[in-house]
Amino acid sequence: PDILSETITPADEFIILACDGVWDVMSNQEAVDFVRQRINGTATLSEIAAEVVDACLASDPKETRGIGCDNMTAMVVQLNV
Predict the structure, then answer these.
(1) Residue pLDDT, tens place only, 25-43
(2) Residue 74 φ then ψ, to 5°
(3) pLDDT-based confidence at residue 56 (cuts at 50, 70, 90)
């Protein structure tokens, strides 16, 4: 696994922890935009994480050549609440 050490600043809103099945489908920025659109609404963090995974699932594995069919796990951690 890739492990990075970052300093959290007051500007940081959330952290997305996800396995490679998610990152094969979404870029970092796509995932941030996806979560940011939902985080201040009525959905819980668990629901947002489930929506990330659902958005990454391939509707037709043959068409995507297996992308969106890998194991997928995601967690969203909200900061500075």
Answers:
(1) 899 999 999 999 999 888 9
(2) -145, 150
(3) confident
Handedness of CA 13, 18, 22, 23 (dihedral sign): positive
Output the six-digit token pair for 31: 């995932």
- Residue 62's pLDDT is what? 62
Cβ atoms of 20 and 66 within 8 Å: the answer is: no
Handedness of CA 22, 19, 81, 13 (dihedral sign): negative
**DSSP 8-state assignment for residue 57:** S
**Token digits of residue 4:** 């990075």
Are 77 and 15 in contact, with CB atoms under 8 Å apart? yes
The residue written with tokens 């659902």 in the block is 54
Q: Which residues contact 20 (CB under 8 A, 6 or more apart)?
A: 70
